[in-house]
Amino acid sequence: MALICCPECRKRISETADSCPKCGYQLTPEIISEIRKKNRRALKTLGMLTAFFILAIFLAIFVAAISETPDAATKGKNLLSFRKQLVWTISKDIIKKSLKSPSTAYFGKGGFYPKQHGGNCVTCVDDDIYSVKGWVDSQNSFGAIVRTRFLLKMKYDGKTWELLETPLME
Ligand SMILES: [Zn+2]
Questions:
Q1: How remote is the CA of residue 21 from the centroid of ligand 1, in Å?
Q2: Neighbours of ion ligand 1 (CB under 5 A)
Q3: Cα 157 from Cα 106, distance rounded (Å)
Q4: 125-156: per-residue pLDDT in tens?
Q5: From the CA of 28, how far away is ligand 1's center (Å)?
Q6: How far is the CA of 43 from the centre of ligand 1 (A)?
Q7: How confident is the model at residue 85 (pLDDT cuts 50, 70, 90)?
Q8: Contact at 8 Å (CB) between 146 and 130?
């Protein structure tokens, strides 16, 4: 036995009743079939809305999943290359200070390169520890240009950079 809503007082009543037990509204077969039709339409709309809503949620999750992953990876990569550049700049200043003639220092024109290119190189050896390997050309005390190779390690504590050990120079 199905229940319908009384069109007058909204009370749920049996669809076989002749009148609403609460407000006394007279129920004819025509009225009942009209109410049934309305109910079916409402259910259909509700079903469609629910389906649409679920679809929208899945779509949102899907879009978030495909757009977030590469974004985070790119951010990490950018941060790493930014830090490496920073370490390189700081290291150059440190090395310069220990040269006989800092103003003649030449570190190559391209900054630092990956190790396999045999050039200057910044490597992230631990989470916050960077190893800097490179060379610099500068004048010695006789005015001759000599190449000095250096190796140093820098640590980042979240705010400042710290030189871990005296740079190795030869
Ligand atoms: Zn009623």
A1: 7
A2: 6, 8-9, 20, 22-23, 25
A3: 29
A4: 888 899 988 889 999 989 999 999 999 999 98
A5: 13
A6: 22
A7: confident
A8: no
